[in-house]
Amino acid sequence: MGRGKNAAWVERLLTLLLIAFVLALADQYVKLEIPTPAWADHHRSLLWFLASCALLLLVLPLSRLPSNSVTAGAGVFSGGVLGNLISAAANGFVVPNPLVIGTTTGVAFNLADTFVLAGNLMLVGSLIVVTLRFRDRLGRHAVERAVRQRIRRRDAA
Asked: How many domains, the chain?
Protein backbone atom coordinates (compact mmCIF):
# COMPACT_ATOMS: atom_id res chain seq x y z
CA MET A 1 0.00 0.00 0.00
CA GLY A 2 2.81 2.42 0.87
CA ARG A 3 4.48 1.57 -2.42
CA GLY A 4 1.41 2.75 -4.36
CA LYS A 5 1.36 6.07 -2.51
CA ASN A 6 5.06 6.53 -3.22
CA ALA A 7 4.56 5.76 -6.91
CA ALA A 8 1.68 8.26 -7.09
CA TRP A 9 3.83 10.92 -5.44
CA VAL A 10 6.71 10.31 -7.86
CA GLU A 11 4.28 10.50 -10.78
CA ARG A 12 2.89 13.83 -9.53
CA LEU A 13 6.43 15.17 -8.97
CA LEU A 14 7.47 14.22 -12.51
CA THR A 15 4.27 15.78 -13.85
CA LEU A 16 5.01 19.01 -11.97
CA LEU A 17 8.55 19.09 -13.37
CA LEU A 18 7.41 18.33 -16.91
CA ILE A 19 4.80 21.11 -16.83
CA ALA A 20 7.40 23.53 -15.42
CA PHE A 21 10.02 22.72 -18.05
CA VAL A 22 7.60 22.87 -20.98
CA LEU A 23 6.19 26.24 -19.88
CA ALA A 24 9.66 27.67 -19.17
CA LEU A 25 10.69 26.55 -22.65
CA ALA A 26 7.64 28.26 -24.18
CA ASP A 27 8.52 31.45 -22.27
CA GLN A 28 12.10 31.36 -23.55
CA TYR A 29 10.87 30.88 -27.11
CA VAL A 30 8.61 33.94 -26.89
CA LYS A 31 11.41 36.02 -25.36
CA LEU A 32 13.74 35.03 -28.20
CA GLU A 33 11.21 35.59 -30.99
CA ILE A 34 9.60 38.87 -29.91
CA PRO A 35 11.91 41.87 -29.49
CA THR A 36 11.73 43.69 -26.18
CA PRO A 37 11.88 47.50 -26.06
CA ALA A 38 14.73 48.73 -23.87
CA TRP A 39 12.33 50.31 -21.37
CA ALA A 40 10.57 46.94 -20.90
CA ASP A 41 13.62 45.15 -19.49
CA HIS A 42 13.21 44.53 -15.76
CA HIS A 43 16.35 44.46 -13.66
CA ARG A 44 16.40 41.89 -10.88
CA SER A 45 18.52 41.64 -7.75
CA LEU A 46 20.54 38.78 -6.38
CA LEU A 47 18.01 38.55 -3.54
CA TRP A 48 15.17 38.12 -6.07
CA PHE A 49 17.19 35.44 -7.83
CA LEU A 50 17.88 33.52 -4.61
CA ALA A 51 14.27 33.85 -3.43
CA SER A 52 13.06 32.53 -6.79
CA CYS A 53 15.39 29.54 -6.47
CA ALA A 54 14.01 28.92 -2.98
CA LEU A 55 10.44 29.09 -4.33
CA LEU A 56 11.26 26.43 -6.89
CA LEU A 57 12.49 24.13 -4.13
CA LEU A 58 9.67 24.93 -1.71
CA VAL A 59 6.94 24.15 -4.24
CA LEU A 60 8.17 20.58 -4.85
CA PRO A 61 6.67 19.08 -1.66
CA LEU A 62 3.22 20.13 -2.88
CA SER A 63 3.38 17.13 -5.20
CA ARG A 64 3.00 14.92 -2.09
CA LEU A 65 -0.59 16.12 -1.72
CA PRO A 66 -3.07 13.71 -3.32
CA SER A 67 -4.33 16.24 -5.85
CA ASN A 68 -3.65 16.51 -9.56
CA SER A 69 -4.95 20.09 -9.58
CA VAL A 70 -2.40 21.12 -6.93
CA THR A 71 0.29 19.42 -9.02
CA ALA A 72 -0.82 21.25 -12.16
CA GLY A 73 -0.98 24.62 -10.39
CA ALA A 74 2.45 24.06 -8.86
CA GLY A 75 3.80 23.11 -12.29
CA VAL A 76 2.38 26.22 -13.97
CA PHE A 77 3.69 28.44 -11.15
CA SER A 78 7.12 26.77 -11.29
CA GLY A 79 7.24 27.13 -15.07
CA GLY A 80 6.86 30.88 -14.70
CA VAL A 81 9.43 31.16 -11.96
CA LEU A 82 11.88 28.99 -13.90
CA GLY A 83 11.33 30.98 -17.11
CA ASN A 84 12.20 34.25 -15.41
CA LEU A 85 15.14 32.67 -13.58
CA ILE A 86 16.61 31.39 -16.85
CA SER A 87 16.20 34.82 -18.42
CA ALA A 88 17.80 36.58 -15.49
CA ALA A 89 20.71 34.13 -15.40
CA ALA A 90 21.32 34.49 -19.13
CA ASN A 91 21.03 38.30 -19.23
CA GLY A 92 22.91 39.57 -16.18
CA PHE A 93 19.85 39.77 -13.90
CA VAL A 94 17.72 41.45 -16.57
CA VAL A 95 14.40 39.86 -17.53
CA PRO A 96 13.01 40.89 -20.93
CA ASN A 97 9.30 41.64 -21.16
CA PRO A 98 8.37 41.45 -24.84
CA LEU A 99 4.60 41.58 -24.32
CA VAL A 100 3.68 45.24 -24.14
CA ILE A 101 0.33 46.96 -23.65
CA GLY A 102 0.57 50.66 -24.40
CA THR A 103 3.71 52.71 -24.90
CA THR A 104 6.59 53.59 -22.57
CA THR A 105 4.03 54.28 -19.85
CA GLY A 106 2.19 51.03 -20.50
CA VAL A 107 2.52 47.57 -19.05
CA ALA A 108 5.31 45.18 -20.03
CA PHE A 109 5.31 41.53 -19.08
CA ASN A 110 6.35 38.14 -20.35
CA LEU A 111 4.77 34.72 -20.66
CA ALA A 112 6.49 33.59 -17.45
CA ASP A 113 4.73 36.37 -15.53
CA THR A 114 1.36 35.07 -16.72
CA PHE A 115 2.34 31.53 -15.70
CA VAL A 116 3.27 32.72 -12.19
CA LEU A 117 -0.05 34.53 -11.84
CA ALA A 118 -2.15 31.69 -13.30
CA GLY A 119 -0.27 29.07 -11.29
CA ASN A 120 -0.73 31.06 -8.11
CA LEU A 121 -4.49 31.30 -8.70
CA MET A 122 -4.67 27.59 -9.54
CA LEU A 123 -2.73 26.72 -6.40
CA VAL A 124 -4.86 28.82 -4.08
CA GLY A 125 -8.07 27.37 -5.47
CA SER A 126 -6.91 23.78 -5.46
CA LEU A 127 -5.33 24.04 -2.01
CA ILE A 128 -8.63 25.34 -0.66
CA VAL A 129 -10.40 22.33 -2.17
CA VAL A 130 -7.81 19.91 -0.72
CA THR A 131 -8.07 21.58 2.69
CA LEU A 132 -11.85 21.24 2.68
CA ARG A 133 -11.67 17.67 1.42
CA PHE A 134 -9.33 16.63 4.24
CA ARG A 135 -10.51 19.05 6.93
CA ASP A 136 -11.30 16.16 9.28
CA ARG A 137 -7.56 15.36 9.41
CA LEU A 138 -6.27 18.90 9.80
CA GLY A 139 -7.81 20.61 12.77
CA ARG A 140 -8.64 17.93 15.28
CA HIS A 141 -5.45 18.20 17.33
CA ALA A 142 -5.33 21.99 17.19
CA VAL A 143 -8.97 22.29 18.21
CA GLU A 144 -8.56 19.80 21.06
CA ARG A 145 -5.50 21.68 22.31
CA ALA A 146 -7.36 25.03 22.16
CA VAL A 147 -10.32 23.56 24.06
CA ARG A 148 -8.03 22.13 26.76
CA GLN A 149 -6.28 25.50 27.15
CA ARG A 150 -9.61 27.31 27.43
CA ILE A 151 -10.79 24.84 30.07
CA ARG A 152 -7.55 25.30 32.05
CA ARG A 153 -7.91 29.09 31.94
CA ARG A 154 -11.53 28.88 33.04
CA ASP A 155 -10.64 26.53 35.90
CA ALA A 156 -7.73 28.74 36.96
CA ALA A 157 -9.96 31.85 37.14
From this structure: 1
